[in-house]
Design brief:
The chain is mainly beta and 967 residues long. The protein is built from eleven helices and 60 strands. It is 10% helix and 37% strand. It binds beta-D-galactopyranose.
C-alpha cells in the first residue's frame, strides 16, 4: 500500500490539526477565502507535477471558478455531474481508483486584511472538499485529507505573509475516500464549502465541549465546559460565572425542538471570546423509549440532503435558513442529516428554530452489497483509522449543539468491526447522546432499533414488541430512519404510519425520504436527473424523491405530510355540536395557538369566528361546544372548519400561520336531482337528447349545449407513477409494469349496441386489451330532462382480473379554451386514496395549468378528490359536471398516454383539447418506489360498479383568480 499515491491509500490524511468544535465566529478575526479562484482541470491525477503550488507560478492564463462550488456545475469543459444510487461509477478495487480521475488545481492569492493581529496563531479551515485535497501555502505543503463533508484545518501562522499569499489546493474527484462516500446522490467534486483563514488569539482554546443537561424532576440545568486551556464561562441571564471544568446547577427553562430556549453565554480563554448558545436538555432511553427531559418524543422527521438545483451541495446560509423555515412551516420537528454532517451553520439554525437532529457521519459503502459485501471497508481493519477519523470529525465539530440528540454512524455500510469501533469511540467521547445505525439488525452498536421502509404491518408488530429477532433489540425504542419514499406522486400511506406512531409508545416516528428532489438545472429538460448528463451508469430519476421540488416549492407530498403530522388533532366531538381538540405536542401547551371556526354552505363561507380553547398540556384532550350555526338549517351541504393558528409571530412564520385543521360535516353531500324525461330523437345520423348530440352509429357524444366533445370513453389507464412502477428489490407486485404488460394502456372499445327508448340512449360496449380474454362490460346510459344530460356508467368485469385497476372513470375531450376549473370538493391540491389527508372540502378554483403537479419525471398527477361538482369553462362558456357518488377529476392539456410517454416536461406540448377525466375510483399510491406498496384498503380491485355524471352547459362567467378557494 505504501507505494500508492496518497489519494489512493486508506489513510484519512496527514498534516492537519485535530478536529474541534465549530462555532459561529461573529467576533473573530477571519478572512473568508470564497470568491473567484484560478482553476485548471486535468483528466488524471498527475501527482508528479506540483509546480503550480510553487511561489511565483504564473496562473494568469488559467480560467476562474467560484469557491465554494463544484467544478462540474460551473460551465462547459468541466466534466458533468453523475448520478448513481448504489453502484460505484468505477471498477471496485479498493482502495484504488481509476486513472481517469478529474483533478482540479485551485489557486487563490490573498493579502491579510488590515488589522490582522501580529500575535497569535492562524488556522486555515476547509469545511468541505469532495473527495480529496492536498494543500500548499506559499509553496510549502501543509498536508492532505479525505472526508468530503467534514472539516479539515491546518496551522499556518508561520507561513503567512502580509501580502501576496498563495494558497494552492489540488482536488481529486476520486480517492480511497470515494469508497466510503457511496451515498445515493450526484457525484460532485470540488471545494464546495467555505475556505476560511482564522486568527487564533494568544491563549485561545484548542477545543471546548459544553456539557449541558436538564433535570426534569427539579427543573434545573447543569453546565460544565470542558476545555484544554483555563478559562471562564459566563451566562449572564442565569448569573453563571464559573471556571472551565467547574460544574454549576441552576433553575432553567429547558431546550426542546418545540420550545428551543437558548441561553447566550461566553467562554473566555486568553484573548479569545467564544460565543456560547446553550440549550439545556437531557436525552436518554428509559423503559425502551427515547425520552428528552423525561418525556417520550415523537419524530416527525425528514431526511435532508444538502441540495440546490444550480449549486449542488454548495449551499448558502439563506438556502439553509429557508430549509429550516420550510420544515417548521410544515410541522416537521426532526432532521436526519442524510448521509453526512451538513454545513455546520445548519445546526445553529436547528438549535435556534428548534429541530431534533440525527447527525449522520459521512459514510456509506452501499456499492459493496451487490458484491456480497466482499472487501467492505467497514469490515477491514485497515480502514478503521479512516472510519474513526470521520467519527471524530463529526462529533468534535458538532458536539456543542443542543439540537443534535443522536449520532449516526453512517448509512448502508453492511456490518463490521469498523462500525463497532466508531460506536465505542463515540460513546466514550460523548455518553450524553444516543447512537444510531440502521444497517446492522443485531443493533449491537446502537441505542435504537432503526429500519427503513418497513411495511405498516411490521411496524405494528414492532410496536407491540412482538417482533422476532434478537431479544435485547426488542427492548429498544423503534424509529423509521427512512419511510414514505417521496419519489414522484406520493408517498401514500403516511397517515396509516402516523396512527401506528401515535398508538405504540415504542414507535417514535420516522423520517420521510427525502427533503428535496435533486433535479439539476438542465439546458433542455428544465431539471435533469440521472442519465441526462451522459453518464455511463446511472439510476435515472431515483434522485428526484423529495417533498420539495428542486426549486423548493412544496409538493403535494409535503402538504400531505404537514397535515398527517399536525401536532393538534381537531375532530368531531362525541356530543353533537362539539369539536374535540387534542394537543399532540410532546412539550408545548396550546397557549401559543389561537383557534378559529368557519361555517360553510356548499363550500361558501357564511360565518367565521374565534374559538376559545384552553391551553391544554401535551397529550390532553377536550371537547368544546361550537357556536350555534350562523344559518338556519339548509338543504345544502354544510361544514364546520376549525383551525389552529399561531397566536404570535415566530421566527419562521407570522401569527395566523395555520398549524392544524379539522372539518366536521353538518350534513351529507346532496346528490344531483335526476335528469330524465326528455326522449332521445334520431335524425340524419345523429341522436339528440336534451342538450346532447350523439353519433347515431356509435353512440358517441359529439356536443353538449353546443360545446364540442370528443372521445368520451371508459378509462382505466393512468400514466404510472414512480410508486406504481415500484423498485426491483421490493417484494410487492409492480403494478405499473404489470398493467402495461396486461395492455391497460391500449384498451379496445367494442360497440355492441346503440339503443334508444322513450327515455334513454344506451350504448353497450366491451372494453378490453388485445391478447387477453378479460374485459369490462360497460354500458353508458344517457338520459336528460331537457336542459341537463345524465350519464350512468355501469361496469361489469369479465374474466379473471388478478390485478387492481389504475383508475375507473370516463375521459372526454373539450375545447382547449375551457381552461379554468371551479369545483366543490376536496382541494386545493391533488389527492389519491392514500394521500388524501390534506384535501379539505371547499370551493376551489384553478386554471388547467395550475391543476398540474410538475413532478420532475411526468406521471399521473393532479386528481382532485371527493368532487361534488366541477365547472370547466372560460368567460361565458362552460360545462358543469355533477357526480353521484362523489368523484375524482383531472383536467390536462394532454392525454394520459402523452403524459405516460414523457420523460421530462419539455416533452409535454398542449394540444387543442382539454382532457377531462371523471373518475369513480383510483388505485392508491403507496410507496413502492422504495417501500411497501398500496395497502389493501386502497386497492382498486375490478368489481361491478355504477356511477353517474350530470352535465349542464353553463353560461355564467367563472370568476377565476388562481388556485385559491375557501373551505
Ligand atoms: C435508502 C438510502 C437512501 C436512498 C433511499 C432511496 O436505501 O438510505 O440514501 O437511496 O433508499 O431513495
Amino acid at each position: 500500500m505504501s507505494t500508492l499515491p496518497w489519494h489512493e491509500d486508506v489513510s484519512p490524511g496527514r498534516g492537519g490539526l485535530p478536529p474541534r468544535a465549530w462555532y459561529a465566529r461573529s467576533d473573530a478575526v477571519l478572512l473568508a477565502l470564497d470568491g473567484a479562484w484560478r482553476f485548471r482541470l486535468s483528466p488524471t491525477a498527475d501527482t508528479e507535477d506540483e509546480s503550480f503550488a510553487a511561489e511565483g507560478y504564473d496562473a494568469s492564463a488559467w480560467e476562474e471558478i467560484a469557491v465554494p462550488g463544484h467544478w462540474v456545475l460551473q460551465g462547459k469543459g468541466h466534466g458533468a455531474p453523475a448520478y448513481t444510487n448504489v453502484v460505484y461509477p468505477f471498477p471496485v478495487d479498493p482502495p484504488r481508483v481509476p486513472t481517469e480521475n478529474p483533478t482540479g488545481d485551485h489557486l487563490r492569492r490573498f493579502d491579510l486584511p488590515e488589522g490582522w493581529p501580529e500575535a497569535g496563531e492562524a488556522v486555515l479551515r476547509f469545511d468541505g472538499i469532495e473527495s480529496a485535497a492536498r494543500v500548499w501555502l506559499n509553496g510549502e505543503e501543509l498536508g492532505e485529507f479525505k472526508g468530503s463533508r467534514l472539516p479539515h484545518e491546518f496551522a499556518v501562522g508561520p507561513l503567512l505573509k502580509e501580502r501576496g499569499n498563495v494558497l494552492a489546493v489540488r482536488v481529486h474527484q476520486w480517492s480511497s475516500g470515494s469508497y466510503l462516500e457511496d451515498q445515493d446522490q450526484w457525484w460532485l467534486p470540488g471545494i464546495f464549502r467555505d475556505v476560511t483563514l482564522l486568527h487564533r488569539p494568544e491563549g485561545a482554546a484548542g477545543d471546548f465541549f459544553t456539557h449541558v443537561s436538564y433535570d426534569h424532576t427539579d427543573g434545573t440545568g447543569t453546565l460544565r465546559v470542558e476545555c484544554d486551556v483555563q478559562g471562564r464561562v459566563t451566562v449572564p441571564e442565569l448569573g453563571i460565572d464559573i471556571r472551565t471544568g467547574e460544574s454549576v446547577t441552576v433553575p432553567v427553562e429547558p431546550w426542546t425542538a418545540e420550545t428551543p430556549r437558548l441561553y447566550d453565554g461566553e467562554l473566555a480563554t486568553g484573548d479569545e471570546r467564544i460565543p456560547l448558545r446553550l440549550g439545556f436538555r437531557t436525552v436518554a432511553v428509559e423503559d425502551g423509549v427515547i425520552k428528552v427531559n423525561g418525556r417520550r418524543i415523537l419524530f416527525r422527521g425528514v431526511n435532508r440532503h444538502e441540495f440546490h438545483p444550480e449549486r449542488g451541495r454548495s449551499l448558502d446560509l439563506a438556502t439553509m435558513r429557508r430549509d429550516v423555515e420550510l420544515m417548521k412551516l410544515h410541522n416537521i420537528n426532526a432532521v436526519r442529516t442524510s448521509h453526512y454532517p451538513p454545513h455546520p451553520a445548519f445546526l445553529d439554525l436547528c438549535d435556534e428554530y428548534g429541530l431534533w437532529v440525527i447527525d449522520e457521519c459521512d459514510l456509506e459503502t452501499h456499492g459493496f452489497q451487490d458484491l456480497g459485501w466482499r472487501a467492505n471497508p467497514v469490515d477491514d481493519a485497515r480502514w478503521t483509522p479512516a472510519l474513526l477519523d470521520r467519527a471524530a470529525r463529526m462529533v468534535e465539530r458538532d458536539k456543542n449543539h443542543a439540537s443534535v440528540i443522536v449520532w449516526s454512524l453512517g448509512n448502508e455500510c453492511g456490518t463490521g468491526a469498523g462500525l463497532t469501533a466508531m460506536a465505542e469511540w463515540i460513546r466514550d467521547r460523548d455518553p450524553s447522546r444516543l447512537v444510531h445505525y440502521e444497517g446492522d439488525l443485531s443493533c449491537k452498536d446502537t441505542d435504537v432499533y432503526s429500519r427503513m421502509y418497513a411495511p405498516h404491518a411490521e411496524v405494528e408488530q414492532i410496536g407491540r414488541r412482538e417482533d422476532p429477532g434478537p431479544d435485547p433489540r426488542r427492548e429498544l425504542p423503534f424509529i423509521l430512519c427512512e419511510y414514505g419514499h417521496a419519489m414522484g406522486n406520493g408517498p401514500g400511506g403516511l397517515a396509516d404510519y402516523q396512527r401506528l406512531f401515535e398508538r405504540y409508545e415504542r414507535c417514535q416516528g420516522g423520517f420521510v425520504w427525502e427533503w428535496i428532489d435533486h433535479g439539476l438545472v438542465h439546458p433542455e429538460h428544465g431539471y435533469g436527473y440521472g442519465g441526462d448528463f451522459g453518464e455511463e451508469l446511472h439510476d435515472g430519476n431515483f434522485v428526484c424523491d423529495g417533498l420539495l421540488f428542486p426549486d423548493r416549492t412544496p409538493s403535494p407530498g409535503m402538504v400531505e405530510y404537514k397535515k398527517v403530522i399536525e401536532p393538534v388533532r381537531i375532530e368531531a366531538g362525541t356530543a353533537e355540536g362539539t369539536v374535540r381538540i387534542t394537543n399532540g405536542h410532546d412539550f408545548a401547551d396550546l397557549s401559543g395557538l389561537a383557534f378559529a371556526w368557519t361555517f360553510a354552505v356548499e363550500g361558501e363561507t357564511v360565518g367565521t369566528g374565534p374559538l376559545t380553547v384552553p391551553g391544554l398540556a401535551p397529550g390532553e384532550s377536550t371537547e368544546i361546544a361550537l357556536p350555534a350555526p350562523p344559518v338556519e338549517r339548509t338543504d345544502r351541504e354544510a361544514h364546520w372548519t376549525v383551525r389552529a393558528l399561531l397566536a404570535h409571530d415566530m421566527p419562521w412564520a407570522a401569527s395566523g400561520h395555520e398549524i392544524a385543521w379539522g372539518q366536521l360535516a353538518v350534513s351529507e353531500p346532496v346528490p344531483p336531482t335526476s335528469a330524465a324525461g326528455a326522449p332521445p330523437v334520431r335524425h340524419a345520423g345523429r341522436i339528440t337528447l336534451g342538450p346532447g348530440s350523439f353519433d347515431a352509429r356509435t353512440g358517441e357524444p359529439l356536443a353538449i349545449g353546443g360545446i364540442p366533445l370528443t372521445g368520451l370513453l371508459l378509462d382505466v389507464w393512468r400514466a404510472p407513477t414512480d410508486n406504481d412502477n415500484g423498485a426491483a428489490w421490493q417484494p410487492d407486485e409492480r403494478y405499473g409494469l404489470l398493467w402495461r404488460e396486461l395492455g391497460l394502456h391500449r384498451m379496445r372499445h367494442r360497440i355492441d349496441a346503440v339503443e334508444t327508448d322513450a327515455e334513454a340512449l344506451t350504448v353497450r360496449t366491451r372494453v378490453a386489451p388485445a391478447a387477453q380474454d378479460l374485459g369490462l362490460v360497460t354500458t353508458y346510459r344517457w338520459t336528460s330532462d331537457g336542459t341537463r344530460l345524465r350519464l350512468t356508467v355501469s361496469v361489469t368485469p369479465e374474466g379473471e382480473w388478478r390485478l387492481p385497476l389504475p383508475r375507473l372513470g370516463v375521459r372526454l375531450g373539450l375545447p382547449a379554451a375551457l381552461d379554468r376549473a371551479a369545483w366543490f370538493g376536496g382541494g386545493p391540491g391533488e389527492a389519491y386514496p392514500d394521500t388524501r389527508a390534506a384535501a379539505r372540502t371547499g370551493r376551489w378554483e384553478a386554471t388547467v395549468d395550475e391543476l398540474q403537479t410538475p413532478y420532475v419525471r411526468p406521471q399521473e398527477n393532479g386528481a382532485r378528490i371527493d368532487t361534488r361538482w366541477i365547472e370547466l369553462g372560460h368567460v361565458s362558456t362552460g360545462l358543469r359536471v355533477e357526480g353521484d357518488p362523489l368523484f375524482w377529476f383531472t383536467a390536462r392539456r394532454w392525454t394520459s398516454e402523452q403524459l405516460d410517454a414523457a420523460e421530462h416536461h419539455g416533452d409535454l406540448t398542449p394540444g387543442d383539447t382539454v382532457w377531462l377525466t371523471l373518475d369513480h375510483a383510483q388505485q392508491g399510491i403507496g410507496s413502492q418506489s422504495c417501500g411497501p406498496g398500496v395497502l389493501q384498503e386502497y386497492r382498486l380491485d375490478a368489481a361491478p360498479a355504477t356511477f353517474s355524471f350530470t352535465f349542464t352547459p353553463t353560461f355564467t362567467p367563472l370568476d377565476v383568480r388562481g388556485a385559491r378557494g375557501t373551505a
